[in-house]
Amino acid sequence: MKAAPFDYVRAATVEEALSALSGGARVLAGGQSLVPLLNQRLVRPTTVVDVNRLDLDHLHESGSDLVLGALVRHRQVETSPLVRRRAPLLAEAMSHVGHVSVRNLGTVGGSAAHADPAAELPAVCVALDATFGVRGPGGPREIPARDFFLGPHRTALAPGELLVEVRLPRPPPRSRHAVVKLSRRHNDLALVAVVACVTVRDGVVTRARIAVAGAGPTPVRAGAAEALLVGRAPGHHAVAEAADAAADATDPPDDRHAPAAYRREMAAVLTRRALRGALGQVVAP
Ligand code: FAD
């Protein structure tokens, strides 16, 4: 099938993109999600605004934040020494996304704006308290990740707004992380995935960040599971209780890919594995 007709605008500046983004327009970034939607006529924008020429592929530190421009490609995130040092959870999560050809084109902004509940990048952003920098007709604004994802493929971006960057705060020193993904085929979108980042000092968990993808309308931040871990020695009991609490926080879909009960069970199993991985424990089969 071919896309329905649309006007094509290749913007050279953010201002040009914003002025083209009125009415029924759509941003084109890496095209990995938008082009299939266009070809299946699941979306029929009047105008497609290609933003690939914009100066939004910066990747740098700003104060205690790591700043990723919306056009940074997944593969850049995965391989950047700066990201590996400053946000290793994100670098590892991106290595699980699709295949290299997808990662070469897919962008940080595209993955966030597409808001697939099973996607890795939104889950990491929710786990690590990222902030999204947005430009729009009303001027610039910032949206915390916890308020950004509203439902499957729904975000807090208002019509005509462009996501321009993602800011990730620095995790505490000696934090450890893990990403565990369950999918039908290697690097398909997750049935369920768990990202975790844990800090242990003097044998006690001082900070835990856990998010589950594929188990709710948005990425699920497992706050109760995190609270169960903090202040405790990271033993098997604490991990098992946290894993059950993470599963309790999910609201999985019941669809042709997997029943809700299976996804919830997997959320517990994968959280256990992620925490054991992050804590350097032996992962049980
Ligand atoms: P596009 O496809 O260009 O755009 C996606 C949507 O976001 C569109 O609605 C577009 O208008 C909007 N948009 C894009 N950029 C902006 C912006 N700056 N501001 C506002 N709106 C914007 N993802 C995973 O997370 N995990 C996987 O395992 C995975 N596997 C995949 C396997 C295959 C075979 C394919 C084709 C894709 C897969 N993906 C996966 C999706 C991939 O990560 C996409 O790259 C991503 O979802 C969209 O990024 P994009 O840059 O291609 O965006």
Provide key terms for this protein.
about 280 residues, alpha+beta, Uridine Diphospho-n-acetylenolpyruvylglucosamine Reductase, domain 2, Uridine Diphospho-n-acetylenolpyruvylglucosamine Reductase, domain 3, Enolase-like, domain 1, 3 domains, five-stranded antiparallel sheet, 14 strands, binds flavin-adenine dinucleotide
Notes on the structure:
With 285 residues, this protein is an alpha+beta fold. The chain has three domains: 44 residues, Uridine Diphospho-n-acetylenolpyruvylglucosamine Reductase, domain 2 (2-Layer Sandwich), CATH 3.30.43.10; 110 residues, Uridine Diphospho-n-acetylenolpyruvylglucosamine Reductase, domain 3 (2-Layer Sandwich); 103 residues, Enolase-like, domain 1 (2-Layer Sandwich). Strand 12 and strand 13 form a beta hairpin. Helix 11 runs antiparallel to helix 12. The radius of gyration is 19 Å and the shape is globular. Flavin-adenine dinucleotide binds next to strand 2, helix 6, helix 7, helix 8 and strand 10.
